[in-house]
Amino acid sequence: MKKIIGTVLSAAVIITLIVLSVIWRGEPFTEAQSRTLTILLIVCGCSIAYCFIVGEITQNYSQMDKLWSLLPIAYVWIIAVRGGMGPRLVLYASIVTVWGIRLTYNFALKGAYRLKFWEGNEDYRWSIVRQHPVFRHAFLWTLFNLLFISAYQNLLVLAICLPALAGMESAAPIGLVDIVAAIVSVAFLVLETVSDRYQWTFHQAKKRLLAEGKTLDALPAPYCLGFNTTGPWAYMRHPNYLGEQGMWLGLYLFAVGAGVASHGIFHMTLLGPLFLVLLFMGSSELGERISSGKYPRYRDYIAQVYKYLPIHRFDPGK
């Protein structure tokens, strides 16, 4: 019940903010911003076509997963260059670049990239999603690949970068809000980086122990649980997701610092980070269903530890 209430309240807050950002649009795009947006949309459209066509041909549906960390770097530097490489834009683009390099490296560790870019390991979740009864008809899976995997995710990746576009022509100097934006976004990026490192280290150690011929139950704690409860994972079920969402919401504050947000808070480009939060709500639910089916103690973990609030520490003895 706690999980359901939390999900409903989170969705309600996000939807409310989306409505407010639509009502209070903030400063409209100038002609130069509109031309830049056209360039970004062309890149996005090419990526959509590539992901869909190549995914259908190769049956590897992680084409967008491989581009997820690369496209934002291209988008924000296009904006920065066309915006005259102002300090706010360069700072924004630099943070996104560090984020992208980190995420690309992590995905490469999982075997996702090959010299033939369309090859590489597919994210295991797509094979699980394909097993859903609704996708027994090949046409429906193809439609899902087109509309969600290829189109929606590409458009979302573009949308989360648009706060930089909103402030592209701002003459406002770097101020307190920009400093807060940088601190918040970098802090969440650090959380995400640390969480991913703990996750990788845990599962690599578990794999080594299992390769010795031991069963999961025979492994020493905490590996016998099967899922990670070390580092930030002892206090939150998805610290990496929190870091990802928090970083992009923090980057939105640069649009506020640029003085383009209506009422000092809302601009249409807030939609991108908010829809990212909605995406992670679905991703976390899927991941928890998978983990609950694989590991008997995962339901105890859900009962004790909040998804994002580090209030309780997981106690495997309970």
Description:
- The protein is mainly alpha-helical and 318 residues long.
- The protein folds into 2 domains: 1-29 and 172-318, no CATH class; 31-168, no CATH class.
- It is 66% helix and 0% strand.
- The two termini are 19 Å apart.
Map the helices and strands:
Elements: H1 2-23, H2 31-58, H3 63-67, H4 71-82, H5 87-109, H6 124-130, H7 138-159, H8 162-166, H9 176-211, H10 239-257, H11 271-294, H12 298-304
Helix pairs in contact: 1-11, 2-4, 2-7, 4-5, 5-9, 7-11, 9-10, 10-11
Question: How would you describe this structure in keywords?
Answer:
318 residues; mainly alpha; 2 domains
For the secondary structure, the number of strands is 0
Radius of gyration: 21 Å
Q: Provide the domain count.
A: 2
Which term fits the overall shape? globular
Largest sheet: none
**Secondary-structure class:** mainly alpha
User: Strand share of the residues?
Assistant: under 5%
Q: Indicate the low-confidence ranges by residue numbers.
A: none
Q: Report, as a whole number of angstroms, the end-to-end distance.
A: 19 Å
Order of helices and strands: HHHHHHHHHHHH
Mean pLDDT: 92
Task: Determine the fraction of residues in helical runs and give it as a percent range.
Answer: 55-70%
* Count of helical stretches: 12
In brief:
The chain has 318 residues and is an all-alpha fold.
